[in-house]
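Troubleshooting: if your tokenizer reports a length mismatch, compare your output against this known-good record of 103 residues.
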Amino acid sequence: MSYLLLRTDKFSDQLNDIIQYIANDSGDVDAALKCLTEIEEAMMRLRAFPESGSAPRYSLLKKQGYRVLIVNRYLVFHKVDNTQKRVIFYAIVDARREYLSLL
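Known-good structure output:
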């Protein structure tokens, strides 16, 4: 059975900001769309393999049940709800940033 994928508003806003930044900074909309496609394809794989990804490095986030999916230089934070068969995306951040306070 395939899992339902849900995005929080915060996640959607962060993803939008990333894609807009890439498009504006590089002047290349195709590069931004390619990045978006790669992120969304990685997220879609969680439908069939919801436990993919790894535990975050911070124990606080591990205890809260977060998992992290690495896509290029971005970290996609999500939680898996096996009882309701869904994956909820909470945040996406640049891996080069200190992310603990961003969740």
